[in-house]
Structure formats: structure tokens, C-alpha cells
Amino acid sequence: MAKTTMSTVDRAFSFLRYFSVHAPEIGLSELARMAGHDKTTTLRSLTALERNGFVEQDSITKKYRLGLTPINLARIRERSFPIEAILKPHIQKLARDTGETAHATLVAGTVLVTAFTYEPERATRVFLDPSAPLPVHATASGLAIAAHLPNPQSELLLGTAPFESFTEQTPPNREEIAALLHTIRASGHARADQFYEADVIGTAVPFFSPSGLPVGAIAVAAVASRFDDNLSQRIIAALTSAGHDITKELGGRRPESL
């Protein structure tokens, strides 16, 4: 019985992931199709979410949108554990120092959440949708985090094969991903060379909690056409310094070994 209850709760909350800046309102039929569930199951979950303020339904269009409960919970979280206040100045400095888009990612269960982004003031730059889910195997942030987790947690975060291919450069299988994770642990930073989007090269380092486990990563997404060795070294140096400072401000510590 407990297993069934947890499965129902997990399914209900999974629907929240489909709302984004580009899809702030979604109809019942569309959401059911996106999630791969029938309309009855979807409606039952939406009704429970609506009853608790996680979603609300427009009285005219009948489409669903996020409710006020997530906002209130986010405020409570930030007051008790002010992660955004810690991350914001570091991300802004990274963007200014490198001239490229900087962002921070947090781990929420087995999902990566973009916590903060900052774009440089230049015409050609990488745009990041903060509401879009980040695939672990195809992003520098995801790989940086996965590389510093114990194997069972790393495999759970990565998910199961087959791994979705976003570009010709996306790591295609667990063997190549494992090799990448080994390199990342040795170097201290992750590099995703056009894994997720063509013409975008991401570099990331994790930051750690007091337990020594990564709670997130900071990254710089650079336009590939202007990426060279000089910019690469500047990005790595800036990220390494910022990652160390964020870990320290969180009262965290780097793990000695995995």
C-alpha cells in the first residue's frame, strides 16, 4: 500500500516539470500526451495538485498553470537556506569576467534545476531557458555533478539508456559517459563541447554541501565560434575559484574520494 501511495505522489509531482516559460499554461489533453498518461490519471493528479495550491485552472480557457504554493515554498527555502543569495554575485561575476553566459544548477531529487542565470551585454551570446529541464548526460553541469557522486547515486541521476541524442556530439552510451566522468574527477571541471546545442560549449564545476556531496554546479556557456585556449583557461580559472568560494560559503567541503 505504501508503495502505491508513493507512486501516486511521485506521478502527481512529475506533472509540474512540464510547465515552463515557453509553456506556462497547458490543457488537460496536451499534458496527458506530454506525460504519457491517460486523461483520467492526469486529471486525478491535477485535481490533487490544485487542491494543494500547486496548480490552478483558468476559468475561461480551462488550461492549467502553476499555483502559488511553489512560490511560498521557494520563499521559505530561501529564508532558511539562502542559496540564491550566495550564488547570485558569483554568477554575475563569472559572466562579467568571461564575457559569456553564466548559470547555476541545483540537484532536486533526480532532476537538475536552473537556479540563476546571467547573460553578458553583447549581441551574440548563449540564451538559457531557466525553466527548461537539463539532461544530465548532455550538459557540463549535469556531468560535473554526476562525476562527484557515489556510483549508485550517479547512475540514478544519469538515468537509464538509451540516452537521448541532441547533437552529433552527445555522448551516446554509458561507456563514453563513464570515461567522461573519470576525466572530470581528475581535472576538477566538466566540458560539454556541443553536447546539448550546436555552437555552445559548456564548462562547469560542482559545489559541495557539508556532507561532501555536490548540491549543484556553476557553469559558463560559451559561443563555440569564439572559443579558444585563452578563453578556455579563463573560464576554468574563474569557475574553479567561484566553486571553491561557494562551497566555503555553504559550509561545505570537497570529498576526499568517492
What does the model show?
With 258 residues, the chain is α+β, with helices and mostly antiparallel strands. It folds into two domains: 2-71, Arc Repressor Mutant, subunit A; 81-249, GAF domain (Beta-Lactamase), CATH 3.30.450. The chain contains nine helices and seven strands; from the N terminus they run H-H-H-E-E-H-H-E-E-H-H-H-E-E-E-H. The strands form two sheets. A five-stranded antiparallel beta sheet has the order 4-3-7-6-5, sandwiched between helices. Strand 5 (190-193) and strand 6 form a beta hairpin. The two termini are 36 Å apart.
CATH architecture identity of the largest domain: 2-Layer Sandwich
Estimate what percentage of residues fall within beta strands: 15-25%
Q: What is the C-level CATH assignment of the largest domain? A: Alpha Beta
Distance between the termini: 36 Å
Return the average pLDDT rounded to an integer: 89
Structural class: alpha+beta
Strand line-up of the largest beta sheet: 4-3-7-6-5
Query: What's the shape?
Result: globular
Characteristics of this structure?
258 residues; Arc Repressor Mutant, subunit A; Beta-Lactamase; 2 domains; five-stranded antiparallel β-sheet; two-stranded antiparallel ribbon; disordered N terminus
Short summary:
This protein is α+β, with helices and mostly antiparallel strands and 258 residues long. The chain is built from nine helices and seven strands.
Furnish the topology, listing elements before pairings.
Elements: H1 2-14, H2 28-35, H3 39-51, E1 55-57, E2 64-66, H4 69-80, H5 83-98, E3 101-108, E4 111-118, H6 140-147, H7 151-158, H8 174-187, E5 190-193, E6 200-208, E7 214-223, H9 229-249
Helix pairs in contact: 1-3, 2-3, 5-9, 6-7, 6-8
